[in-house]
């Protein structure tokens, strides 16, 4: 399996499952796949977070806000693996309840990943709404 194939298997498996869990109200699977090595950051569609304490607080906030995910699909636009670093550019199509109100939206998302301790971890996420 090539480095790109290995990364894509992780992205379409554990990472996508963790994102779906977050949208069902459980932030722990997402937290487990994020780097604990600084710097980590989120420039989010709702809130920004710089550093692990802020990122953890953001994940808790999102987990408390989301429930009843009926759709989470990643439409990859670009992906590359360069040694122990990778990035993705994607559209995320989501249908979920936010604070109890059903919503559907698409986010433009760029993420940066690091290979740490033999596995991939997210180090940065930038997302904004497609209008």
What's a quick, concise take on this entry?
The protein has 131 residues and is an alpha+beta fold. It has 3 helices and 6 strands. A 6-stranded mixed sheet has the order 2-1-6-5-4-3, covered by helices on one side.
- Helix fraction? 25-40%
Helices and strands, in N-to-C order?
HHEEHEEEE
- Relative strand content: over 45%
In total, the number of strands is 6
What do you see in this structure?
Helix content is 31%, strand content 49%. It has helices at 3-23, 28-32, 52-65; strands at residues 41-43, 48-50, 66-82, 85-98, 101-116, 119-129. The chain has 131 residues and is an alpha+beta fold. The model has no long low-confidence stretch (mean pLDDT 97). β5 and β6 form a beta hairpin. The protein is globular, with a radius of gyration of 14 Å. The chain is built from three helices and six strands. The chain has a six-stranded mixed sheet, covered by helices on one side.
């Amino acid at each position: 399996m090539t480095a790109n194939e290995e990364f894509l298997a992780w992205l379409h498996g554990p990472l996508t499952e963790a994102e779906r869990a977050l949208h069902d109200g459980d932030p722990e699977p997402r937290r487990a796949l994020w780097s604990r090595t600084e710097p980590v950051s989120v420039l989010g569609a709702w809130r920004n977070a710089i550093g692990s304490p802020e990122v953890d607080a953001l994940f808790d906030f999102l987990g408390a806000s989301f429930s009843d995910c009926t759709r989470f699909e990643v439409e990859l636009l670009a992906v590359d693996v360069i040694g122990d670093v990778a990035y993705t550019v994607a559209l995320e199509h989501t249908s979920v309840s936010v604070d109890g109100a059903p919503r559907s939206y698409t986010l433009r998302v760029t993420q940066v990943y690091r290979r740490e301790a033999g596995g991939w971890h997210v180090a940065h996420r930038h997302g904004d709404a497609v209008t």
